[in-house]
Design a protein that fits this description.
The chain has 14 helices and ten strands. The protein is an alpha/beta fold. The protein folds into two domains: 246 residues, TIM Barrel; 71 residues, no CATH class. It is globular, with a radius of gyration of 23 Å. The structure holds iron/sulfur cluster.
Amino acid sequence: MNTLQKVEILGQSAKWDSCASSASPRKIKTDDRIGNAAGCGICHSFTEDGQCISLWKILYSNVCSFDCKYCANASGCNKNPARFEPEEFAKVFISLYVRNYVEGLFISSAVEKDPDKTTEFMIEAVNLIRKKYKFQGYIHFKVLPGTSYDLIKHASEFSDRMSINLEAPNSSRLSEISSVKDYKIDILRRQAWLKRMKIPSGQTTQLVVGSSDESDLEILKMIDWEYKNIKLKRGYYSAFTPVPKTPLQFKDRTPLKRENRLYNIDFMLRKYHISLNEFKDIMQNEMLPKIDPKVALARNHFDSGIDINESSWDELIRVPGIGPRSASRILELQKNHIEIEKKQQLKSIGVVLKRALPFIILNGKRQKMLHEFN
Ligand code: SF4
């Protein structure tokens, strides 16, 4: 197998690993267009200072000895095995970098014979990139479950961001989809090590949504715990998609809308610091309602609309269409005794009127009744 074939196979294999809020599911269906962001193994991510960069997202190897039931690379499922050699990997990355195709690297891998052996190869490849080819840019290094402390420490010395995938929200759910991984030891203990290592851009994780019939509440409880205890930077959610010839090939695909709702709540936990208990109040049987969670939360929270000129941060932030930035601007106007009297003023400070109007009072008047709003 030549290097180009490996790049294609291992780039495709990596597409299930979310690392970027801007990763695109967009596919180009005709041959006369360029710019297919899905198939080429390049995704986008944001650095600590908010800069958007393109990453070469790739597996070092797709040959796995583990048995995750949803995974095309699992032992006995992979019909297209491929792996790089360290020098080969480093050369491909550097040639993509010097041609300006990518600005950074996201390296992950299947677990070949054991996690340490595979990690040693990954480290060798990245060491070449850093030392021989003198690349100083962004590297996201995926920690394989069960990797030993010394190797993780070594990898942390040249990584900007690291991550280890939870895949499931607790040990009993993980045991439904993998007979090999130990949730507490192989994953949570490694996350605790990463927290102590102070990785420059921190650590992230990913969950596969719907592979083990877990509820939204189980997922959100775990991610909330991680934000508080592991100092997680970001959680990523990947809707389960059945892969042919895997044990879960006939299981229903998880709707993308469920993934989107989890991202909405995740944002509100991280950025608005709304307590998880508030979201429990809008759930039924531990599942979020099928509407925008912020609208559901606002309907539950406000008996009547709020006066935009007298509301607190906690009230403003719960209004759909008002984000942290527009809430701060409204508070700034309140502080300077400047009253908002017109919808246009709200629009100019970034409020999304269509979403916000049913929940606010302007000039003493309710803008739209809550029941009129869908
Ligand atoms: S560890 Fe599990 S999810 Fe990761 S490559 Fe192996 S089988 Fe797939």
